[in-house]
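Project outcomes to date are best conveyed with an example. Our students and postdoctoral researchers have been running inverse folding experiments weekly, and each run begins with a structure described purely in tokens. The record below, which covers 847 residues, was selected by the lab manager from last quarter's runs and is presented without edits.
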């Protein structure tokens, strides 16, 4: 029986076949991609190779280049055969990529390959390498150009990503604006990302020297040459520069680990510079590092490089941009050594010259260098913004700061000489000088200790102490010294000031030392910032004029026509109080010495700071004098006083003076003594605070200040008094003329005598002028003696001769006293009084 079988169901099977086909297609696609990748990799690893030279496919490099497409579609290599010499100029104008490059080099093991001519990379050439390495040794290719006006290698017309390595590059290009290797200014993009590494650059032959070995011309804005690297090359025997980079070049230059030396037998006589990097203000992120300069072989080895000329020799010269941080220009780890300038002339040796822009310097070394010229061995010359780490000037070497700003982030140590002729120096650490420091312009700012055991001389310029805490301050000659930082600054030796000592913060403690103010020096202090210790000033007081002794706080005004003291030395001591009859006095005293110390008639003003009161009451202060260095004291009273000062008239002699309280007075305490003219009479008044065993006062007069006669005797009402007494005497003698000197001779009942005065009164008919205090804050008094009534005109004139203030005042005949309040800035002025056609002048200072 025939049976009909059911039809099979193929739907599941069909679906499985479809999935298998899709999977197979996918695997075939992946396999194809893998094969393509392997082919591409095989192509990348297998460049197109042409052998060139003896026995090669091409006889010349130019012929071989003709077989290479302008735009590279694969890597190409021109392998130069052993012993081949190519007499040709080679122009390379091929555009490659990072994957498709062109390399020209000796074939494996080839030696003695020479190109006589110029190799030029031009026409937008990119990714081309010229190498002298044969696979086992370097410098088996020599490129030499004997002409004196042509380069040996030239990078032009926006040549980029070019590498010249491990070759001998020889030339005689004598052009000052040319080189054995020339990099031109670019066309539109610049000759960027080019590298010279491991080459030997020198002269071609022994008869001529090239001017420069590497020369980079000025760039053109966007066509500036950027990211050029000169690495581990040897640069020998040149007349001008080993590397010369002109202004207008771009960013990112690296000049590193090269050796500059001179190996010829005949010594050069030209001005030589190893590295002249003058890329200009638009060039940043550059590095000059690890280079060796000197000797007759690599790494400044061999014999001494001798230059026999009278020209300057420079190691590294830099002038570029102002970048900081990652864009900073760095000069570091360079070594200059084994060099001698033998000519006894005026030439200078400058190891490092910072000529412009901003550069950061670290760990550069200068050693075994001599110069028979007068300008010595300069390890560093700065005319720019220069940032140093800690820096040491070695013995026999010179650091010269001429302009700009030099910042030392660590310590600055001078064992040789630092010449500071301009610009500013900022030392964040310690300044230590055991050699010589000479400043003629600019400021030296020190934030750490200023130590000096050598020569420290500032003829102009300034020294600023700006540390935030204690600082040590070495001795020497300072022109301007300014204290700005907080804390106590302590002298370690004597200091001489030529111009100004300005206290703008902190305290300057002299310790056992002394500050000496020269003839034009002035001291400026405040109640919060001052000098503690000893300050000395020498001046010559003049008749009728106030002498402020450099503003140390003592003003001496000799009476007009009186005996003058001559050259007078004042030493101010602060922070130490004298003891008067067992009681401490003010923490300030003055030692005054002069050629003439007796028979004087001087008005004395004594200024002090509030922190020197030593618990005393200002209104109770009186003058005391000691003639034996503070052993005993003589009470001298007071003529007038005000906030922070006391004044005494009729001082007749000098010694040590201070202020103490009136409750420590001597047996007779004279508090005032005045002599004033009234018409043709002289009125003498005096007061005493206390009297003990006093007989009275002889009134004496003199016409010459030396020989006195008694006019009268004024008796004390009782021998003893504990309350103030006032006395008065009128000199009515007729025929008075000229200057008359009055003094008091106080007599005790036991015969002891004490002199007070003298005071002077003028009976001349000419006007006289006296101003006090001569160093004033807001106001000062003017005493004017007029021959008759009329109009007095007072003016203040500044140092430029400009009248800054004027006032007119009606005065009567005889003495007149005016208080004036001129509106003028702080400074030195000339006060002029014009009376009845006559002029009288005196200098004053607005504090």
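After processing, the design step wrote out the following sequence:
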């Amino acid at each position: 029986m025939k049976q009909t079988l059911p039809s099979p169901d193929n739907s599941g099977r069909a679906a499985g076949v479809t999935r298998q086909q899709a999977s197979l297609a996918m695997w075939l696609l992946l396999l194809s991609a893998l094969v393509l990748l392997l082919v591409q990799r095989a192509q990348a690893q297998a460049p197109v190779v042409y052998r060139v030279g003896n026995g090669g496919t091409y006889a010349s490099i130019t012929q071989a280049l003709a077989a290479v497409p302008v735009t590279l579609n694969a890597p190409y290599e021109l392998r130069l055969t052993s012993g081949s010499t190519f007499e040709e100029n080679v122009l390379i104008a091929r555009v490659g990529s990072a994957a498709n490059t062109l390399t020209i080099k000796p074939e494996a093991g080839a030696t003695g390959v020479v190109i006589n001519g110029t190799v030029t990379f031009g026409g937008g050439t990119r990714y081309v390498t010229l190498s002298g390495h044969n696979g086992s040794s370097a410098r088996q290719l020599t490129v030499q150009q004997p002409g004196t006006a042509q380069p040996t290698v030239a990078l032009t017309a926006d040549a980029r990503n070019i590498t010249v390595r491990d070759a001998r590059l020889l030339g005689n290009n004598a052009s000052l604006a040319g080189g054995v290797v020339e990099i031109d200014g670019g066309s539109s993009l610049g000759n960027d990302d080019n590298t010279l590494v491991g080459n030997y650059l020198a002269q071609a032959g022994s008869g001529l020297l090239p001017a420069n070995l590497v020369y980079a011309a000025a760039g053109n804005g966007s066509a500036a040459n950027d990211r050029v690297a000169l690495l581990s090359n040897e640069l020998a025997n040149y007349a001008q520069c080993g590397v010369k980079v002109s202004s207008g070049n771009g960013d990112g230059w690296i000049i590193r680990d090269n050796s500059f030396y001179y190996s010829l037998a005949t010594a050069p006589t030209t001005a030589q510079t190893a590295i002249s990097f003058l890329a200009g203000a638009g060039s940043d992120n550059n590095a000059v590092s690890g280079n060796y300069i000197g000797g007759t072989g690599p790494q400044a080895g061999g014999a001494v490089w001798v230059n026999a000329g009278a020209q300057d020799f420079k190691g590294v010269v830099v002038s570029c941009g102002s970048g900081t941080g990652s864009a900073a220009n760095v000069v570091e780890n360079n070594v200059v050594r084994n060099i001698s300038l033998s000519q006894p002339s005026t030439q200078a040796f400058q190891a490092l010259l910072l000529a412009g822009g901003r550069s950061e310097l670290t760990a550069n070394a200068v050693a075994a260098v001599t110069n028979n010229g007068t300008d010595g061995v300069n390890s560093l010359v700065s005319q720019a913004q220069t940032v140093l780490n800690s820096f040491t000037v070695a013995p026999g070497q010179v650091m010269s700061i001429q302009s700009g700003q030099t910042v030392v982030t660590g310590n600055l140590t001078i064992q040789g000489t630092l010449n500071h002729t301009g610009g500013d120096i900022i030392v964040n650490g310690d300044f230590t000088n055991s050699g010589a420091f000479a400043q003629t312009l600019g400021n030296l700012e020190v934030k750490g200790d200023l130590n000096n055991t050598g020569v420290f001389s500032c003829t102009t310029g300034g020294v600023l102490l700006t540390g935030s805490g204690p600082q040590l301050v070495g001795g020497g000659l300072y022109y301007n010294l300014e204290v700005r930082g907080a804390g106590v600054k302590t002298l370690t030796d004597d200091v001489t000031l030529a111009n100004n000592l300005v206290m703008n913060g902190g305290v300057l403690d002299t310790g056992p030392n002394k500050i000496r103010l020269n003839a034009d020096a002035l001291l400026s202090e405040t109640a919060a910032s001052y000098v503690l210790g000893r300050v000395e000033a020498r001046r010559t007081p003049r008749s009728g004029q106030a002498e402020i002794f450099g503003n140390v706080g003592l003003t001496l005004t000799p009476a007009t026509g009186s005996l003058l003291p001559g050259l007078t030395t004042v030493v101010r001591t602060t922070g130490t109080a004298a003891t008067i009859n067992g009681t401490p006095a003010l923490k300030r005293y003055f030692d005054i010495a002069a050629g003439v110390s007796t028979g004087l008639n001087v008005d004395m003003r004594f200024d002090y700071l509030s922190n020197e009161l030593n618990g005393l009451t200002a209104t109770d202060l009186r003058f005391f004098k000691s003639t034996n260095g503070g052993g005993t004291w003589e009470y001298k009273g007071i003529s007038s006083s005000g906030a922070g000062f006391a004044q005494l008239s009729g001082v007749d002699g000098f010694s040590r003076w201070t202020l103490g309280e009136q409750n420590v007075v001597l047996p007779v305490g004279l508090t005032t003594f005045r002599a004033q003219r009234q018409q043709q009479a002289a009125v003498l008044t005096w007061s005493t605070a206390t009297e003990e065993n006093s007989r009275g006062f002889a009134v004496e007069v003199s016409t010459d200040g030396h020989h006195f006669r008694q006019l009268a005797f004024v008796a004390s009402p009782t021998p003893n008094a504990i309350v103030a007494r006032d006395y008065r005497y009128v000199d009515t003698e007729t025929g008075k003329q000229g200057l008359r000197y009055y003094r008091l001779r106080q007599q005790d009942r036991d015969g002891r005598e004490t002199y007070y005065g003298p005071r002077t009164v003028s009976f001349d008919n000419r006007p006289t002028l006296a101003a006090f205090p001569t160093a004033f804050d807001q106001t000062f008094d003017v005493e004017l003696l007029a021959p008759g009534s009329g109009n007095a005109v007072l003016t203040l004139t500044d140092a430029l001769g400009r009248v800054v203030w004027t006032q007119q005042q009606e005065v009567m005949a005889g003495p007149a006293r005016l208080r004036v309040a001129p509106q003028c800035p702080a400074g030195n002025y000339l006060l002029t009084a014009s009376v009845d056609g006559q002029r009288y002048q005196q200098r004053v200072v607005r504090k």
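Residues 571-663 form one domain. The radius of gyration is 45 Å. The training component of this project remains on track.
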